[in-house]
Amino acid sequence: MKGHIHILGICGTFMGGIALLARELGFEVTGSDANVYPPMSTQLEAAGITLMEGYHPEHLQPAPDCVVVGNAMTRGNPAVEYMLDQGLAYTSGPQWLAENLLQGRWVLAASGTHGKTSTSSMLAWILEYAGMAPGFLIGGVPADFGLSARLGDTDFFVVEADEYDTAFFDKRSKFVHYRPRTLIINNLEFDHADIFPNLAAIQRQFHHVVRCVPALGRIVHPAHSGAVATTLDMGCWTPRVSFAAGDDGDWSAQLLAADGSAFRVSSPRAEDVEVRWSHCGNHNVENALAAMAAAEHVGVVPPVAAQALGEFRGIKRRLEHLGTAAGVAVYDDFAHHPTAIATTLAGMRARHNGGRLLALIEPRSNTMRMGEHRERLAPSTADADRVYWYQGANVNWDMQDVVDACGHASLSRDIDELVQQVTAQSEPGDSVVVMSNGGFGGIHGKLLAALEAKA
């Protein structure tokens, strides 16, 4: 064993991934979390990792060689206070990753307000399909791999590069630690209002990571994003490659199907190729372009990347089909920002044949709960035939104005009542998209069960 690390906040997707990588490297790994539950707990325990419920000082006895502190940990947490009082060695998850795994590897990082999980999953799969056996750490579970992190068998490592802050003692964005050689910036909007005062503060963090990309690297960015362009204009020392669903990116896509399930890719150094896959939406087409451009940087030619995307199975909770009951198809999606809601619904609308498109939305992210995007919420649902909004107890503003602005919406503060409404009002041929970045009170299973009972 290389030593013993204890992870505070181990059941989050990112920190759980760190735990799996550390175990694979040969560390003894234990961890604490407020809630220890499947599926992450099952995945960790199967890897030989001891999990402890709560944040008790005795979890750090005897003292581990290092405590890896998740960014959800705050001063006042009993384990954090004990760690500091005892002078235990500690670090953040991103810093641990950088020092123990990323140094000396070719890091391919997917960043941006939206699409990080999808793009990093596509990129990892393209490299895997090409025989490059990459390592990866992704904030979701790609269906092609069945796990969120692995070491890999080569120097290539794909990481989902999050701009959220690192830890209570390190307020830089996580991605600053990763030192990528290939950097994707998918898009850039204001988000994370709990830690960033404005878009300019986020752009400054993105420029910090831009500064770290070597002159022999590559930055892949959208052809049409003023916010990204402004960030790169702060100073860029790396070759840049643009992408766009249209004619004017270095990498561009022409739709062969209105829903984005087929498109032709043009690139600077290869013949055009066609991608035909099971996914939809312009946002996914652009994610695919970014992944292909990044993969080319490490030697994967477009025809191989296109073939890989044709077999790409997607990611859990990214428009994941959970089942069909009473003729109603139920999908789960992680959308938690007006832009993500709009692009997901637009993709579904382009694909939808008959029936109605129903959206169940829980504004749950810190930014949404604060009401920062309230004026954009109603317009974001324009492609839905009906919207069911859920106002949880921690949403500290009245959502009724959003509901009224939709004109085809209702508001509920009770999940069981919401399930009854949707079940009663849905019809065979409808599609229901449940949108939340949390568990939404188990509404997915409750809805499918209620529809089954209705059938």
Automatic annotation (TrEMBL):
Its cofactor is Mg(2+). It catalyses: UDP-N-acetyl-alpha-D-muramate + L-alanyl-gamma-D-glutamyl-meso-2,6-diaminopimelate + ATP = UDP-N-acetyl-alpha-D-muramoyl-L-alanyl-gamma-D-glutamyl-meso-2,6-diaminopimelate + ADP + phosphate + H(+). It is an enzyme of class 6 (ligase). One of its GO terms (biological process) is peptidoglycan turnover. It comes from the Bacteria. Residues 111-295 form the Mur ligase central domain. HAMAP family: Mpl. This is UDP-N-acetylmuramate--L-alanyl-gamma-D-glutamyl-meso-2,6-diaminoheptandioate ligase. The gene is mpl.
